[in-house]
Amino acid sequence: MKNCLSNVTGELSAIRSASCSVVIAAAVSLLGCHVKSAEATAIQPAAASTKTATRTANLASSDGPFGLAAGTSIAELERLGFKSVQGNPGIYEGVPPKPIEGVSEYALIATPKAGLCRVQSRAIVSNVKGTGAQLRAEVDRLAGLMGIRYGKHSLKGDINDRDATKRNPQLWMLGLMDESVLYGYTWNSHRTIRPLPNRIDFIEVTAGAFAVDRGYVSMMYTFNNYDACRKENQARAASNL
Fold first, then answer.
1. For the chain, N or C: smaller number of CB within 10 Å?
2. Other CB atoms closer than 10 Å to residue 162's CB: what's the count?
3. Is there a domain that residue 2 lies in?
């Protein structure tokens, strides 16, 4: 989608990535991150049992998104059952300590030093009309719940770049597929009524489409250590030159 909202679009830049698939959106951000899974075996067996139980309990009681905390190490994520996505070792999939009903997929970005820096989830919406009414309603519902937790959103994006889609509302889902349509909400830690908790820097709730009759709602949480993740990945890539 073209940048058509000047400064406002800067805040919405990640919304478009959020409307891609969970794994692809995450992989674009940190493609090829190197994960040292051997970290999980560095503890002696007897001590590992105690420490694993303690850390898992701490993670399960975290007040962060889905019970996950910013900076959680790769080893701890693996103990919770998250597994590296084949071909994208910086991306992890699994079930978090506090999943929510209707959300079927969870993907994380984590690096060896910075730990967990982004959480993304996806709720599938089927039997959607061409107008996208059901999908937009689900985005609104989840954004409403997000507002209860984090306060009023910073920005609502409802963009339609093409005249054909504007003249024919029944083509809205088609526009969502070709990225001429955007619909979602953002919470920016610097533009909210109250500060976002748990080291959350940015939240996005956005619509995406698999087909003209099937879509999804993506919820993405970016933590304040995301830049550290990105720089760590860049350093790793540069070391191969």
1. C
2. 14
3. no
> What is the number of structural domains in the chain?
1
Cβ distance 103 to 42 under 8 Å?
no
pLDDT at 204 over 50: yes
Q: Determine the pLDDT at residue 26.
A: 39
Whether 1 is in a domain gets the answer: no
Is residue 66 domain-resident? yes
Quickly state the pLDDT bin for 46 (edges 50, 70, 90): very low
Contacts for 234 with CB less than 8 Å, ≥ 6 apart: none
User: Containing domain of residue 13, as a range?
Assistant: 7-238
pLDDT band at 3 (very low <50, low <70, confident <90, very high): very low
